[in-house]
Design goal:
By secondary structure, this protein is mainly beta. Helix content is 7%, strand content 30%. A four-stranded antiparallel beta sheet has the order 1-2-3-4, with no helix packed on it.
Length: 67
């Protein structure tokens, strides 16, 4: 079964997975966060993420960024 590019992008997060968000500038450090909760039964955003570094928690809805 072949998959489309759209299907390759779809996240299937579970609590305990790590989320890594690349910076938008060349010198930006990637942000790492632990997914603590996926409120939606079918896995769609937002996700409750505990960010390392600053230690705060936030709801996040990851999306595509232009290249």
């Amino acid at each position: 079964m072949s998959r489309s590019a759209e299907e390759d992008w779809i996240m299937h997060p579970e609590p305990g997975n790590w989320l890594i968000v690349e910076g938008s500038q060349i010198d930006d450090t990637p942000r790492c966060g632990l997914i603590e909760e996926v409120p939606s039964a079918h896995g769609s955003p937002p996700y409750l993420v505990h960010w390392t570094g600053k230690g705060h928690r936030a709801l996040i809805s990851p999306g595509r960024t232009p290249m």
